[in-house]
Amino acid sequence: MSSHNFDLLREPWLRMRHAEGHVEEVGLLECYDRAEQFTDLAGESDTQNQAVFRLLLAIFIRALRHHALFGPEDRLADTWQKVQAADDLGALVGEYLEAWEDRFDLFDTSAPFFQAAGLHTQKEEHSDASVLVPDTGPGLFSTSTSAATKTLPAAAAARWLVYTQAYDVSGIKSGAVGDPRVKGGKGYPIGTGWAGAIGAVQVMGPTLQDTLVLNLPVRALLAPPEEIDADLPPWEREPADASPRSVDEVTPTGVVDVLTWQQRRVRLFPDQEGNTVVGALICNGDKIRRANNFMDPTTGYRYSRAQSKNGVDVFFPKTHDPALTVWRGMQSLFEQNRPDEPEDRKPAIISQLHGDLADVVNAAYEQSGTTLRLTGMSYGTQDAVVDGEVSETYPVRVQLLTDRAQQLWPVVVGVVGRVMSFRGSMAWFHKQLLVCAGASPEEAPQAPVQAWLAALEAQFVAWLDYLGGIPAPEDAEREWGRRMRTTTLYFIAEAVAAAGPRAAIGRTEESEAGKLIIHSSARYELWITKKLAEIVADTALTP
């Protein structure tokens, strides 16, 4: 490493957005000190923002633990309320950070932040800085071009370094000298960064400080001392070298450990002035255990019937479906346990919203409002390339997530189930319109179904906001039925009109019983309309 310094506590590198929309770069100390002035992170990509937020949350948790404000016997509601009402959080976090400031230097010669000093390959080779940026080049999902990222300002390199530890693709890596797993100079795949393997859920408040508090896993603050002492971030442990914690997969020691997991060993190479990163070396780091790793408070976990054997239930982190993020994401958040198998686990930041904690969170945010952000990554070809990001934000008020709204959860799950079921009916309807016009399609057309689903998604998001007022379940059903019926009838009418006169006249076919069947758009319009009447609540059909 060079003798240059880039102090992440004071040098501006975090891109923060203000309520008015403008973006400002600040250091870590200023970020926490002015957290009430910022609304969100504003980095180069949504997954980068999520990676940086995980870092900010880990620092926040360690700072609260460092000051020993709470104990195992404290109540969740009292603990959360103390944090939410505190007026000195910036100073509290600042004191913690300054106690470890020698570990927050990007170019330190012995313990560079989120890196391994002296990391090298047998041939002393490394890539240019573009290796830190996902999909550089002319591809569809590229965030930049390779030429533009061969060198990176130190601030940008710091952001992409945090991203790399969270979301780096799998595949063969450079073989680091000192890593016992290296064979033939290569580091063979150990999986993507942990954040890339999960579907992250984030409750967002009006300001960054609100968002940190709303995503605080309160039980983690009240863990026994021995668990807290073991749950350390990289900057509180011995500096990393090329060797992994274990040649086998490792289970994180707690929430801070998993939020800052080092799936890679990285080394940045600055220029002579220390203002720019000109090269980077990325090697394998600590292979994380994915089955039954329940440490991450931001993701849900799905039960795997296929992997559960010999009386041992196996769970894996849930991911977001890129094509159906809002539908499947909301369904998993509001689903309750199934009697035939163990309960899927909701994100801890959601499942903790019960009892007294629900009351104090509702009281604090029922007027200011909250939103829900779902973030994930979609990989392809053995997880060695990025297909795209999943990042969606929905106006879900926090009271809908608490057990005070538990009577509405089956309504949400039922609505999603009916929409997913009716999606098949809509596909068949559009296929039959083509048949009526004389075509012989092998598969149903996707574009008109996706257009209908996109319009319905907008209605679903608005309906979720309506649910934040906690209406009676029958009113919620009626309101959704009205929205789905109006939207769907419009698309049905548009499809029939687009099918044209030939589909209206139709064609005839003789059945095996010798009966004449007329295939016309009117026939299938009647069929899909009846299906719609079955799928929505009967009360919704009343004008």
Question: How does the SSE layout of this entry go?
Answer:
Layout: E1 14-18, E2 23-26, H1 28-33, E3 38-41, H2 46-66, H3 76-85, H4 89-99, E4 127-128, E5 152-153, H5 154-167, E6 173-174, E7 186-187, E8 200-204, H6 208-214, H7 218-221, H8 225-230, H9 255-259, E9 264-270, E10 276-284, E11 301-303, E12 315-317, H10 325-334, H11 348-351, H12 355-365, E13 371-380, E14 385-394, H13 398-401, H14 409-436, H15 447-467, H16 473-505, E15 507-510, E16 516-519, H17 521-535
Antiparallel strand pairs: 1-2, 1-3, 4-10, 5-10, 6-7, 8-13, 9-10, 11-12, 13-14, 15-16
Task: Provide a brief overview of the structure.
With 543 residues, the chain is of the alpha+beta class. Helix content is 39%, strand content 14%.
How far is the N terminus from the C terminus? Answer: 72 Å
Mean pLDDT: 92
**Number of helices, where a helix is a run of at least 4 consecutive DSSP H or I residues:** 17
Principal-axes shape call:
globular
Q: Level of helix content? A: 25-40%
Largest sheet, strands/sense/barrel: 4 strands, antiparallel
Which blocks of ≥5 consecutive residues have pLDDT under 50?
137-141, 538-543
Strand content: 5-15%
Radius of gyration: 26 Å
Broad structural category: alpha+beta
What is the number of beta strands? 16
